User: What shape does this take?
Amino acid sequence: MLIRALGFLCLMLLCSCATMNESECRNADWKIIGLEDGSRGKELSHIAQHRKACTRYNIVPNLQQYQYGYKLGLQNFCTPAKGFQIGQRGGTYTGICPQELEQGFLAGYQQGREIAILRDKIKHIKSVITAK
Assistant: This one.
């Protein structure tokens, strides 16, 4: 029973590596996929994972459509509010925002980082007080 469960777990891990299955590759709207990836803050190179997944089915992503959608998605991602969220949770910024959006994103990011740093300092102080 344990061996069967481990085998199933290994199979699930292998399957989870692919970003897309055959049906998704065949019916892909590469503009929408790019839009979703850009909106999530993925790097443009993320298309390589989609390409790898779809190569198994002899399908090549439409790079031009993906890039177009990706640029649109960055408009959703590269906002001061999103920068704040990422900074506050201790996330990193990889420099993906276009120049015209980057300043606003970074302003929010810096404010969020300051809160994260202060939260860490408070946590540390509490642990020092508790240890005494």
About this structure: The radius of gyration is 20 Å.
